[in-house]
Amino acid sequence: EWNGSYRDTFINKTGLDIGSSTGLVVNAFVLYYERYVRSGKIGIPSGAAIGSTGVPHPEKIEAYYQRDISRDLAEAAHKAAHEFFNRVGINSETEGPSFHSYLDALGAKDPATNVLLSEIINDQFDIISGELDKLSPDLHEQIETDNQQMADSYAAMQKLVRMLKVDMTSAMSVTITYTDNDGD
Fold this sequence. Notes:
Elements: H1 6-12, H2 21-46, H3 70-86, H4 99-106, H5 117-133, H6 139-172
């Protein structure tokens, strides 16, 4: 539909209200990272997800039948979200208009440190990359042998979710319209 009339419809849904294109994209991005990357790939299998019983479920890792790629899949999803935040091109390192550039244009800063919010968010993406890199390529094995490292990765991801869902959306004046019950 992007090749048809929907492209014009999307472009013409300006503003930041519920149903605007910006609101829809921000909500989809935050939902994706929160539910499918943080919880789906790390939180639920490790038992670290908020609202879980704390009991690990290593059988719920992605790629259970080819477990040696489970970390790679989590890293790829995390990297894709990081690149989307910065709008890095698929076949290049060129950045374009993005959440990063929008936050900078708004002058969004952390009130405590006076550091640009986009820098703080990018730093957290980098911290998470480091945490994920510490995991075994086989997340099932990681949960079985040292689940604390999974919990540490989840905690770093949870911090990013709060930044995206609260700080970024507040700076952009975008309302989160999807529901969850994890207490962010």
